[in-house]
Design a protein that fits this description.
By secondary structure, the protein is of the alpha+beta class. It contains 3 helices and 17 strands.
């Protein structure tokens, strides 16, 4: 049986994913063991100058300046990190046909005159403290978006349709419709954050552990070595699941492509056979 170049490439890719995944997880487990040996737990969130430059696990209550979204949005989200996403449903001509798609709005409309016209996709962040520590920009980026705003039935003339605010609350968009969503860190759900990083003054920075930079943000109270071990183990399990999901996805795509080729090949063979049957016999 002839092995195609495509099959060889896919096989090599899968082997690389498996090998690099095994090595990566092995390194993560080794790093985690070192982290548990070196870490200093700061369960009260207070700054101790003796910990300067050390790898610390700081658990503290979150305090922050509230984000002001503006009068248009009534400032209804209580958080220090919010992402507003605005999209327009537009039509365009291509190859003589009309196509439709959602396009993200990155600036206010040129001829803005309605309140909604002034809004565009934007990230909002405000200064935040974890206990007595100021959360730096690097840590802020690691804070997950774990909330979606849906507190009101309508907002700025748009209606909630179960997934987003849209024009008329329609599931099937029409040309000119607008989509509006808000993702944010839910402080009400997680009033505490736990930071694993190097103490740097009244803030943090990545801790260099060999070739690995250590900086993690955990939701909730991780205030002991045992809880940290559990949280780090969950990260490793998440990485394993991600690798397995990627491998399964690649295999599934390849299987679909192969089946589709076989199906098309069978159709072609059948069409050729029918054409041969319909072709009149040659007479001498």
């Amino acid at each position: 049986m002839k092995i195609s170049v495509g099959k060889i490439i896919v096989a090599v890719l899968l082997v690389l994913l498996i090998v690099t995944g095994v090595l990566s997880i092995k390194q993560r487990k080794s790093d985690n063991a070192e982290i548990l040996k070196k870490v200093t737990v700061v369960s009260d969130g207070k700054i101790n100058p003796a910990n300067e430059g050390k790898l610390v696990l700081v658990c503290g209550e979150v305090d922050f300046y509230e984000i002001y979204l503006g009068e248009l949005e009534y400032n209804q989200i209580d958080s220090f990190k919010i992402k507003r996403t605005v999209k327009d449903f537009v039509s365009y001509e291509k190859d003589g046909q009309t196509h439709y798609e959602w396009q993200e709005r990155t600036e206010k409309k040129y001829n803005a005159y309605k309140p909604l016209d002034y809004l565009f996709t934007e990230d909002f962040k405000e200064e935040t403290w974890v206990g007595e520590f100021v959360l730096d920009d690097y840590g802020m980026e690691k804070v997950p978006m774990n909330g979606d705003f849906d507190e009101t039935e309508s907002l700025l003339g748009l209606k909630w349709n179960g997934m987003e605010y849209t024009s008329g609350g329609r599931d099937d968009p029409e040309d000119g419709d607008v989509s509006l969503t808000y993702e944010y860190f839910d402080v009400e759900k997680y009033p505490y954050l736990s930071i694993l990083a190097k103490q740097s003054g009244d803030s943090f920075e990545p801790y260099q552990l060999g070739k690995t930079k250590v900086y993690s943000v955990f939701c909730g109270q991780i205030d002991s070595v045992d809880k940290l071990e559990e949280a780090l183990g969950a990260q490793v399990k998440g990485e394993k699941r991600g690798r397995i999901a990627l491998i399964v996805l690649i295999v599934a795509i390849c299987a679909i492509v192969v089946l589709d080729k076989k199906k098309n090949g069978s159709k072609k063979e059948k069409a050729d056979d029918n054409a041969a049957e319909d072709e009149p016999e040659k007479t001498e």
